[in-house]
């Protein structure tokens, strides 16, 4: 009998537990809780402990200055996962006031979905706090959908300067010079990969395409991509096909091997640090971790992609990254508080607390000092030749197809023409299935605009 | 009179309790299953009729998502990879599991030790197995290529995960490696249950090893084989997401893209939840048909005739 009662009791507890698990949640930050106000920030994980400390201090300062206000900072997952978490929060009816993710996600996923507030007017008084041009990365259709809150990045090729000097090699300016460097390094040092690439990460192939396309299009890749995404031209053209072909040439001429198709960022840096590779492609964000892993064993240098053909010149890619935006499922009754927080987080003291630990080479907020590292000035000099990442323009489907096609082209499975056609097919599929429109903001209804427009004062 | 009535009420209460008791016992499982399996499944079917990115309003599109899936060659390629994967992984797990079981039967020393180490990979998660083998397969500092180089087998060195022609076999091997120990245990139990008298009688009649294997071992193991194959097929069809995602992410050049990774990509990278749901429904339907045929063909009574 006792066993039976115990069993029933356990069953009841399980049922209650399951019901609570399944049906729990609700509005965790709906604004007034016992007279207090709450703000909720949904952020991707931060890579440095000092960043987290800085954010917590900045938040504490805000709470101290605004009695009765509580700011909840939740950090989880990668940048690319934030839309997923935001969707879950919306389905559960939870309020999320701010999201911290990449600018690419803000531009190409969240803003077109109506998941963000238009903060053009809200941020207007603070626009001069940002380095000139950085807010442009977050402006789509004349509206500001987020702010940069990290550092401005640019891409480059890192190389083992000590090894280059020892072998009497100069920074390559052309593809032929690059091939020569690779041949000498392989021969004299007996290593297999003169240049190793983190090709296991699809996004980096997209960046390679961007580098190559920037050259083959005569530095017109952004304008031409916009024209293509607007449906005015085809992706299959001489410039895109040549870009694929040029990437393949790097493999055909022995600068890279197929090892790069299965190498991630950790392995790439490890090979570079162990001097099993003399060059790798990355961006300003790779510099500090690379210095750390190399640990002074040799001197590191940087150069822009060499010219891939006659009349072509390098064009790097980058952006003012680490985006911060206001979610459209925010508590709009708290708009004054939301605006106050945006003001607070971008002031000098807060920006130094949160962005100082990143040690930015190229800061996005004027009052944050740039870090002084050996190659920093050279990287800053690349900025005039840097354009915004193309994957900030186009949807992730295009990015995924591009990455896959480059792997196919380099492995010799498909031709550059077929690769370009596959990207065009993906675009057409997007239009057919999702009614994709590059100028999505022109199609929005008044109701959609009302949903993302801050309440009038 | 009062006592009699009271006794009757007590009896009725007891009967009622006895009736309720089994329902109360299964209630937690039913509720959990409904909440976390039935409800999401039905929601998946519902969502498959909408265009939805999870963030903006749902837009009813009828069967358009299904039409889109039927003309999506990437999905059918991924499905082809899935069935290819399921077939070879099922064969690999069972053949290796059976061979290991036979070896364990004949082992004369350290039986416990060898059984434990053979079974150990089963206790590892797919993520751990995937990471471990991804490092072993690594083209530059992986153990496998370095070992091949050391023993002078340079011609066998290849891009285990970077060559689109090879990558899917590398992933399948890890799945086989992980589960072979589990299937070994089942086969071992089956082999130990076969009476030795059968073999002795067959030997007296002049039967050789091949004849004994096909006339005694296989028929006696039939139910174990059915169970092993069912488990291996089901696992390979619907549980390959983790290992593919960890080891290759579906690449290179989509050569290891299986239905589950493609569905996930559509749902959580492309935010096309309607189409991803339609793909899931189609995969469910195909798996159901395939599973039904398999169960029907492998569990007929004549298969169990001694």
Structure characterization notes:
Chain A is of the alpha/beta class and 457 residues long. Chain A is 45% helix and 13% strand. Chain A is built from 18 helices and 13 strands. A five-stranded mixed beta sheet of chain A has the order 2-1-3-12-6, sandwiched between helices. In chain A, strand 1 (37-43), helix 2 and strand 2 (69-75) form a beta-alpha-beta unit. Chain A is globular and about 70 Å long. The N and C termini of chain B lie far apart (64 Å). Chain B has helices spanning 2-47, 64-70, 73-106, 111-123, 126-137, 143-150, 167-193, 196-204, 209-220, 222-238, 241-247, 259-268, 273-298, and strands at residues 50-51, 59-60. In chain B, strand 1 (50-51) and strand 2 (59-60) form a beta hairpin. Chain B has 306 residues and is mainly α. Chain B folds into two domains: 2-47; 67-304, MetI-like (MetI-like fold, Orthogonal Bundle). A two-stranded antiparallel sheet of chain B has the order 1-2. At the A-B interface, helix 1, helix 3, helix 11, helix 16 and helix 17 of A face helix 1 of B.
Features:
heterodimer, A: 457 residues, alpha/beta, D-Maltodextrin-Binding Protein, domain 2, 5-stranded mixed beta sheet, 4-stranded mixed beta sheet, 18 helices, B: 306 residues, mainly alpha, MetI-like fold, 2 domains, two-stranded antiparallel ribbon, 1% strand, flat
Short description:
The complex is a heterodimer of chains A (457) and B (306). By secondary structure, chain A is an alpha/beta fold.
List the helices and strands and how they pair.
The complex is a heterodimer of chains A (457) and B (306).
Chain A (H helix, E strand, L loop, with lengths): L1 H22 L13 E7 L5 H17 L3 E7 L6 H10 L6 E4 L1 H8 L9 H4 L15 E2 L2 E2 L2 E6 L2 E6 H6 L8 H15 L5 E2 L5 H15 L4 H9 L8 H15 L12 H9 L5 E5 H11 L5 E4 L12 E3 L1 E7 L8 H11 L2 H8 L20 H5 L5 E3 L7 H15 L5 H19 L11 H7 L5
Helix pairs in contact in A: 2-14, 8-10, 8-16, 10-17, 16-17
Chain B lengths: L1 H46 L2 E2 L7 E2 L3 H7 L2 H34 L4 H13 L2 H12 L5 H8 L16 H27 L2 H9 L4 H12 L1 H17 L2 H7 L11 H10 L4 H26 L8
Antiparallel strand pairs in B: 1-2
Helix pairs in contact in B: 1-13, 2-13, 3-7, 3-10, 3-12, 4-7, 5-7, 5-11, 7-10, 10-13, 12-13
């Amino acid at each position: 009998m006792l066993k039976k009662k115990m069993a029933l009791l356990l069953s009841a507890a399980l049922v209650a537990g399951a019901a609570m698990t399944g049906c729990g949640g609700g509005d965790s930050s709906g604004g007034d809780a016992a007279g207090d106000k709450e703000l909720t920030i949904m952020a991707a994980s931060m890579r440095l402990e000092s960043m987290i400390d800085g954010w917590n201090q900045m938040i504490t300062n805000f709470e101290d200055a605004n009695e009765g206000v509580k700011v909840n900072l939740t950090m989880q997952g990668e940048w690319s996962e934030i839309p997923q978490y935001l969707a879950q929060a919306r389905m559960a009816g939870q309020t999320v006031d701010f999201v911290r993710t990449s600018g690419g996600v803000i531009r190409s996923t969240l803003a077109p979905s109506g998941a963000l507030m238009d903060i053009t007017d809200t941020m207007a008084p603070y626009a001069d706090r940002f380095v000139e041009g950085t807010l442009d990365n977050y402006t789509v259709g004349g509206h500001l959908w987020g702010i940069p809150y990290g550092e401005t990045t640019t891409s480059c090729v890192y190389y083992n300067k000590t090894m280059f000097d020892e072998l009497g090699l100069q920074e390559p300016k052309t593809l032929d010079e690059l091939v020569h460097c690779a041949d000498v390094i392989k021969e004299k040092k007996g290593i297999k990969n003169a240049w190793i690439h983190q090709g296991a990460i699809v996004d980096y192939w997209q960046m390679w395409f961007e580098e190559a396309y920037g050259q083959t299009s005569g530095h017109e890749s952004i304008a031409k991509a916009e024209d293509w995404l607007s449906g005015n031209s085809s992706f299959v053209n001489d410039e895109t096909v040549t870009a694929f072909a040029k990437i393949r040439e790097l493999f055909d001429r022995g600068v890279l091997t197929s090892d790069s198709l299965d190498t991630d960022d950790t392995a790439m840096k490890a090979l570079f640090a162990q001097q099993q590779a003399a060059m790798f492609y990355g961006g300003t964000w790779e510099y500090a971790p690379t210095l750390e892993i190399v640990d002074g064993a040799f001197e590191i240098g940087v150069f822009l992609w060499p010219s891939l053909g006659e009349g072509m010149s390098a064009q790097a890619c980058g952006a003012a990254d680490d985006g911060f935006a206001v979610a459209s499922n925010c508590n709009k009754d708290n708009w004054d508080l939301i605006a106050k927080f945006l003001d607070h987080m971008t002031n000098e003291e807060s920006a130094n607390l949160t962005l100082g630990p990143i040690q930015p080479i190229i800061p996005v907020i004027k009052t944050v000092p740039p870090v002084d590292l050996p190659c920093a000035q050279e990287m800053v000099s690349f900025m005039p030749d840097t354009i915004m990442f193309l994957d900030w323009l186009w949807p992730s489907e295009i990015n995924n197809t591009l990455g896959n096609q480059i792997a196919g082209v380099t492995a010799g499975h498909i031709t550059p023409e077929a690769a370009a056609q596959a990207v065009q097919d993906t675009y057409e599929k997007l239009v057919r299935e999702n009614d994709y429109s590059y100028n999505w903001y022109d199609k929005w209804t008044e109701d959609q605009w009302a949903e993302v427009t801050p309440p009038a004062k | 009179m009062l006592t009699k009535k009271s006794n009757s009420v007590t009896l009725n209460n007891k009967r009622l309790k006895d009736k309720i008791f089994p329902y109360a016992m299964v209630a937690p499982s039913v509720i959990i299953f409904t909440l976390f399996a039935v409800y999401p499944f039905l929601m998946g079917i519902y969502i498959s009729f909408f265009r939805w990115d999870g963030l903006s309003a749902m837009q009813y599109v009828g069967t358009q998502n299904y039409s889109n899936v039927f003309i999506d060659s990437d999905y059918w390629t991924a499905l082809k990879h899935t069935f290819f994967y399921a077939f070879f992984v099922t064969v690999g797990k069972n053949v290796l599991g059976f061979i290991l079981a036979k070896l364990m039967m004949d082992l004369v020393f350290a039986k416990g030790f060898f059984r434990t180490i053979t079974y150990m990979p089963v206790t590892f998660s797919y993520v751990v197995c995937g990471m471990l083998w991804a490092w072993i397969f690594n083209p530059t500092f992986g153990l496998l290529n370095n070992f091949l180089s050391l023993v002078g087998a340079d011609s066998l060195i290849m891009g285990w995960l970077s060559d689109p022609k090879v990558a899917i076999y590398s992933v399948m091997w890890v799945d086989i490696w992980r589960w072979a120990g589990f299937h070994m245990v089942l086969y071992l139990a089956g082999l130990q249950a076969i009476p030795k008298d059968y073999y002795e009688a067959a030997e007296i009649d002049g039967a050789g090893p091949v004849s004994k294997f096909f006339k005694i071992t296989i028929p006696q193991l039939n139910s174990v084989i059915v169970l092993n194959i069912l488990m291996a097929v089901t696992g390979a069809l619907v549980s390959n997401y983790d290992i593919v995602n960890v080891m290759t992410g579906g690449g290179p050049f989509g050569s290891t893209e299986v239905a589950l990774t493609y569905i996930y990509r559509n749902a959580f990278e492309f935010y096309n939840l309607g189409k991803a749901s339609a793909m899931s429904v189609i995969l469910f339907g195909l798996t159901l048909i395939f599973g039904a045929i398999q169960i029907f063909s492998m569990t007929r009574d004549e298969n169990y005739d001694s």
